[in-house]
Design goal:
By secondary structure, the chain is α/β, with parallel strands linked by helices. It folds into two domains: about 140 residues, Periplasmic binding protein-like II (D-Maltodextrin-Binding Protein, domain 2); about 100 residues, Periplasmic binding protein-like II (D-Maltodextrin-Binding Protein, domain 2, 3-Layer(aba) Sandwich), CATH 3.40.190.10. It has eleven helices and ten strands. The protein has a five-stranded mixed β-sheet with strand order 2-1-3-10-4, sandwiched between helices. Strands 7-6-8-5-9 form a five-stranded mixed β-sheet, with helices on both faces. The longest helix has 22 residues. It is globular, with a radius of gyration of 21 Å.
Amino acid sequence: MKSNRLLSAFLLPFALAGASAQGETLTIAAAADLKYAMDEIVVSFKKDHPGSRIDVVYGSSGKTHTQIQQGAPYDIFFSADISLPQQLVTEGKAIGPVRPYAVGRIVLWSSTMDASRLKITDLAGESIKRIAIANPKHAPYGQKAEEALRAVGVWEKVEPKLVYGENIVQAAQFAFTGNADVGIIALSVALSPEIAAKGKYALVPDSLHKPLEQGYVVTSRAKGKKLALQFTGYMEQDVARATMRKFGFVLPAETKVKTDSVK
């Protein structure tokens, strides 16, 4: 009897550790450009971790960063701008190190014209009346769109035509529904099945803007949360990396795609 009690006492911590991971709920805040890739990754992860619950909230990285600063209950922050999670670590609101997970690309996309033939300078033309981009005030993809437009000298001409989405998915929706003639959107969104079926795209040369370096971090709220560590570890595995490549992301330490290599 005594030996059974000793054995139970020895095994209890291990049983609790497994149960805690299985019964935990993980709340992820992710940049909107990750919507389609992350949805697939979560489904795949849950097959390997049955019983786990993962909720993902998508939005602009700038707004999410502010929400976490104000105490929003997120466990992991996937940001389209790697500097934002780095700021959270500095402020003591996240546990470093920040890990890069991808470099994003912007594209011209349209449901009403053949965008594969467009160049960014074409957006200044009279035939294009409305252009959708994510709001540069808080969305990294919008900031890169503005940088590219300024780099080719057409910002002043196109600014009156701009329609701003709260995030890159909403900007894509404006172009998808025809409320904008063209959208400057994320390649990852352009490659999603629904969007890809309705239009074509042209990559914006990445020499026209600073790199869209993206990174994630575990927040202080999730310190010691086993499921958070399991999920971030899963992001480094081949299955998750393959999904990221599928949606056009350039992964850390991998050869950079050429401007004309992804169509």
